[in-house]
């Protein structure tokens, strides 16, 4: 995952579920707990996220992550870049699919001609 995409996904998840643990976030993103911790620390240092201690229902110490106004702006900008890149990837993929369909169609045509003895 690209670093920019990771920042976007972390900000996105934390905005939706501020009490999400780093372990839960790592599982949701399919990355290591250490990488999540590193990313969150960087977001906190950049002033995009604030962390506050609280006690969860199991009486364990946990954190509540809140996006700052700057974090919300950064998430919006990252979302726009992510969407544009995914749309470009989709366009390339659609072109590849069409090329494959044409290739398969040509191969089927050649196969049919061969079976008919042409």
Mean pLDDT: 91
- Strands of the largest sheet, in order across it? 1-2
Gross geometry: elongated
CATH class: Mainly Alpha
Q: List segments where confidence is low: pLDDT < 50 over at least 5 consecutive residues.
A: none
Radius of gyration: 23 Å
Beta-sheet strand percentage? Answer: 5-15%
Structural class, by secondary structure, is mainly alpha
Number of strands: 2
Strand count, sense and barrel status of the largest sheet are:
2 strands, antiparallel
CATH-level-4 superfamily name: Winged helix-like DNA-binding domain superfamily/Winged helix DNA-binding domain
- What is the percent of helical residues? 55-70%
CATH-defined topology: Arc Repressor Mutant, subunit A
Q: Distance between termini?
A: 51 Å
The CATH architecture is Orthogonal Bundle
Number of separate structural domains = 1
Provide structural commentary.
- The protein starts with a helix and ends with a helix.
- Helix 2 (22-29) packs across helix 3 (33-45).
- It is elongated and about 80 Å long.
- It has one domain (3-115): Winged helix-like DNA-binding domain superfamily/Winged helix DNA-binding domain (Arc Repressor Mutant, subunit A).
- The mean pLDDT is 91.
- Strands 1-2 form a two-stranded antiparallel sheet.
- The protein has 118 residues and is mainly α.
- The chain is built from four helices and two strands.
- It has helices spanning 3-16, 22-29, 33-45, 69-115; strands at residues 49-55, 61-67.
